[in-house]
Amino acid sequence: MAAMMxxxxxxxxxxxxLAEEVNESILHAAFIPFGxxxxxxxxxxQATQKHRSFGFITFLEREDAAAAMDNMDGAELYGRVLxxxxxxxxxxxxxxxxxxxQPIWADADTWFERQQQEEEMRRLEAENRAANQAAExxxxxxxxxxxxxxxxxxxxxxxxxEAENLQQNNTE
Length: 172
Hints:
Layout: H1 2-6, E1 9-16, H2 24-31, E2 37-41, E3 54-59, H3 62-72, E4 76-77, E5 80-81, E6 83-87, E7 92-93, E8 99-100, H4 108-153, H5 157-171
Antiparallel strand pairs: 1-3, 1-6, 2-3, 4-5, 7-8
């Protein structure tokens, strides 16, 4: 039951058992006492161009849809007993269990956005790796230069003694 309620559209009602004479304006008139109606649809049979004995009514407010369902389920319209329930989302062939709630192209814009974001992330990661590599190379170069400088600073003890001896002789 919980799984069925997940896809339920709380402000759209399914109305089944419609007589042939009922059209969208009659359906609208029958349900308007319960609240403002956003849309009324009666899907047509492609072969006969007549409605298929059911329709959908979308109310602006969920509470209005609930009141209409409570009052009109089991009611009679043009000699036929109506079945009124919350509508399930339209199913299109191709998703889980062979059906999907949306056509495959419905997320094309978001797919392109995700692709651009992923490409931007890859570019930024590559820049970051290059910057880190350059920083590591610079650190290694400085460390090598410091080691080289330490070697230059180290004076041979014999040379140091000779330099001190020469300096003493020059000052005398």
